[in-house]
Amino acid sequence: MSPTPVPHDPQLEPGRAAMRAAVRGARVMSARRAAFVLGSLEVFGPLSMDLYMPLLPQLADDLHTSDSLAQTSMSVCMLGLALGQLVMGPLSDRLGRRRPVLAGVALFAVLSLLCAVAPTIEVLLAARFLQGVTGSAGVVIALAAARDMAEGVELARLLTLLGLVGALAPILAPVAGGQLAAVLDWRGVFVVLAGIGVALFLVALTLLRETLPPPSRHAGGVRATARRFRGVLRERLFVAYLLVNTCVGAAFFAYLASISFVLQGSYHLTPQAFSAVFAANSVVLMLGSLLNRALVRRAGTVRMYAAGTTATALASVALLCAVVAGLGLAVLLGVLALLLLCYGVIAPNSSALALADHGERAGTAAALLGTSSFAVGPVIAPVVSLGGAGALPMATTMAVATVAAGALVWTAVLPRLRRSRQRAGSAGAVRI
Questions:
Q1: What is d(CA 132, CA 375) in angstroms, rounded to the nearest whole number?
Q2: How many CB atoms lie within 10 A of CB 270?
Q3: What is this structure's pTM?
Q4: Which of 1, 69, 188, 354 is positioned for an S-S bond with 184, CB 3.0–4.6 A?
Q5: Which positions ≥6 away from 332 have C-beta within 8 Å?
Q6: Are 338 and 368 in contact (CB under 8 A)?
Q7: How far apart are the first and last CA of the chain?
Q8: Residue-range domains of the chain with CATH
Q9: 101-139: pLDDT as tens digits
Q10: Which of 25-34, 161-170, 303-312, 411-420 has the highest mean pLDDT?
Q11: Shortest CA distance to 394 belongs to which of 276, 269, 242, 263?
């Protein structure tokens, strides 16, 4: 049987040519500058979680609360990062990208100081949720601004650069958190977070240029925003991308929530050895992004997306088999590295394809994409832990989620892409 023909990346409709020309006129940042600025704005998630993670027991003692409530301070921040994107994304479609980013980063710094002086766990939880909401501005608007500047293969390449910059945070944050824990208490770490917020505000103030010109912005209030959300969600192809994104996000958060318990509890790695392995895995993730950037112009975003999702599913099944068979730590780490390499290929192509037909409402579409990833974080961690914090629950969750993602790509995404191209009367197909 011959391989399934699928279309090249979808192009914008001719009716939007005027808007696209206006946006191109606003492209005043080089790809490297955009990658540095926008990639820096994507670090709020890992920084907000990893810097004070080693000090959670101390936080619980100081605020006279339980360990579970102390851990909840991480979940509510992630929830704020998820829900805040639903506000910040559409707001950037209305006001432009720059103003919401500056306001969000500034408020993130202020709320970090509020966390530092929180007298009770209740005040801390409220401040952490709002910290997540304000930090979400950088996460979602970075993606929307990238869509303003590029489309198709070039958008995938730009998002790869953003991912490379953003991937430094998961590598450096746990190491920095451990070092800060040696010299600061948990309140001092939040003061450091406030300082990082100020630094990122200055970066955005001096280097970030507006990518959405006034002619391309949307007027209207809540009803207009709701109509834009409905317009995006009525497109079945986008919903298919959204479901795939949620499944892949569930697998990735299962990895993040479990890997420390697996390696330190089941395989008895020291904290120092675990930090080294975690950093090495993040480097592998970056290598996957570099591989995608090198190949995507030749292969196209559709082919890279389908191949990356399929390979991730196969690697997850291999990981589950390795755990069940008890093949040992070396095999587990090798298969896990392969899985993360494939994940690095998926992420930029997934966003590029999902945003392809939503240049005029990129903030709204990016908000839905971001929320679909971040919202699974607070849910997946307790689900994985139901079976015990071990290798088998982690591997099972990752395998189920990635196989579901792969099945959705081949049964929902690719057929709809093909039909969309046929309806548009486009010619030519590529083979995967």
A1: 12
A2: 10
A3: 0.80
A4: 188
A5: 267, 319, 322, 323, 391
A6: no
A7: 13
A8: 30-423 (1.20.1250.20)
A9: 999 999 999 999 999 999 999 999 999 999 999 989 988
A10: 303-312
A11: 263
Give the side-chain half-sphere CA count within 13 A for 345. Answer: 25
pLDDT of residue 182: 79
- Angle made by CA atoms 368, 215, 212, in degrees to the nearest 5: 50
229's tokens = 């959300």
Q: What is the pLDDT of residues 133-166, one digit of tens each?
A: 998 998 899 888 888 888 888 888 888 888 777 6
CA distances for 245 relative to 90, 239, 293, 368, angstroms: 20, 10, 20, 10
Q: Which residues contact 14 (CB under 8 A, 6 or more apart)?
A: none
Q: Helix, strand, coil % (nearest 5) of the chain?
A: 80, 0, 15
The CA distances from residue 92 to 80, 111, 187, 207, in Å, are 17, 21, 32, 18
Mean pLDDT of the chain: 82
The residue type at 69:
L
**Between the CA of residue 260 and those of 257, 263, 270, what are the distances in Å?**
7, 5, 10
Quick check: 230 pLDDT over 70? yes
Q: What single string gives the DSSP state of each residue in 116-144?
A: HT--SHHHHHHHHHHHHHHHHHHHHHHHH
Q: Coil, strand, or helix at residue 318? A: helix
- CA–chain centroid gap for 346, Å, is 11
Tally of residues, the chain? 432
CA–CA distances in Å: residue 216 to residues 24, 26, 28, 360: 11, 11, 16, 7
